[in-house]
Structures are given as structure tokens and as C-alpha cells.
Amino acid sequence: MSYQRSKAPLSLMEQLIMVFVFAFAAAVCLQAFVYSDRLSKDGTTKETAAVRATEVVETCKAYHGDLKKAADAIQGQVTDATSDNGEGAVLTKAYDDDSLRVEVKTQAKIATGGEAPDNLLHQKADVSVFEIPKEGEAEKTTPVYTVQVAWQLQEQAKK
User: Fold this and answer.
1) Three-state secondary-structure class, residue 136
2) Which secondary-structure segment (H or E) carries 146?
3) Mean per-residue pLDDT pooled into runs of 10, the chain (159 residues)
């Protein structure tokens, strides 16, 4: 009588290896989906931040750099300038629905051109958009979006 070994353990081993291969492939695919979702959310946040920054900057430009009037128009807050030339004033506008905060920090006023009335006064500003932290989260110090802008402080003289 000859004794034959069963091939069942070999078949079971092959099936276990295939299950591990498919589990590994599923984990890789899941990581790809999570990464793409995070990229999509980051892109949406940056796009929304750019739109919100544009809204605030255009309001500042419309009021020719008068941050107090601009803040009143958009229901923002202004902290006073740290110097007499207007440098250091900060306009802050929070958008709670988007969890974003826009900060416009002014720089020194710059005169360009030659003699008056051709001498136009410009104001430069740094615009930063930050995410508003949720309850229990630490304040984020890295802005989502930054840009430098400038606007004319006075109407151009008519010739």
C-alpha cells in the first residue's frame, strides 16, 4: 500500500498568500485615496483663501488705504499703526464659515514720480490668510496663502 500525501495544505497556503497580496493592494489603494482627498481639501482651502484675500485687498484699494473705513465696510478689525507713517497697521477679517482669517499688515508709504501733483503716494501691504483653529487645537502660525500688494493712496491729479 502506497501512502499519498494530500495536496490540501499546499492549496490552503496558496490561498492565504493570495489573501495577503490582495490585502496589501487594498491598503495601498486606500492610502492613495486618503492622500488624494487631503490634496483636494488643501487645494480648496488655498483657493478659498485666495478669494477671501482678494475681497479684503480690493476693499482696501477702494478706500485708498484707509483701513478703518475698509474694516467698517467688511466688519473687520484694525489695530493701530506702530509708526507715524502708517506702517504696521493691521486689518483683520475673520471668515468663520470658511474657518479663515485674513490679515493685511501695512508697510511704509512710498512716494513715486516727480514733483507734485504727479507725485503719487502708494501703500504696500503684506496679506496673509490663516486657518482658524478648531476648539482644542493650537494656533497655526504658518499661513495658508500670502501675497504682497500695493494701492494708490490718493486720486491721480487730473491734467
Assistant:
1) coil
2) strand 145-152
3) 75 93 97 96 94 93 86 90 69 92 86 58 88 84 91 61
